[in-house]
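Below is how a single chain appears once it has passed through the pipeline. First comes the sequence as given, then the structure the pipeline wrote out for it. We keep one example in the README because the format questions we get most often are answered faster by looking than by reading.
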Amino acid sequence: MEKLILIGAGGMCREVISLVEDINSLTDRFEIRGILDDNPSLAGEKVAGHTVLGPITSENIPEDCQAALCIATHRDIALRGRVGERLNLSPERWAKIIHPQATISSSARIEPGAILYAGSRVGPDTSIGLNSFLYYNAVLHHDSHLGDYTQVCAGVLIAGYVTVGNRCYLGIGSILRDNIAVADDIMVGMGAVATQDLREPGKVYRGMPARAI
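Resulting structure:
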């Protein structure tokens, strides 16, 4: 079994624990050894039956364990990347966690640390970067690419030939039309529809069509 340390003790942590339980119901693949979180008041507490061991440091991740980055927030979309890069783990130390009800083309390239929830769909000749994730029922169509540490929320639809940069956040139900590019560090608001390139790093785009605010 692959031994896991979960990074972050919030809502995504509980979701990933549930995801791991679903995987293990079919085949005993993962063993969760514990959780790391920088909130000192959580040390020793239980999250869905698993103990918070201490702060988020590379020293707290045993050499025989992989890490799973369980940090997702719209309040600070760069946080996921900052925490992951702070740990400075080699790529193979990040666990790839894929729900059995995710659908993935054989030609898709999924990098370490990717987390794919139930109902997510990944088309042919796509790629998902280091420590990015697709929430429930998100769709990545053919020939589209996600950068590193990008968060794709539930029900997002990414059409074909789309490139999404690093550390982006695509809000619930947002839509990206075909043949567009999204720069690094961009937030696309819930339900927004992007019909052209989103070129301004660090901006929030909302509405139909999506515009920077």
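The two ends are 47 Å apart (CA to CA).

See the next section for the split statistics.
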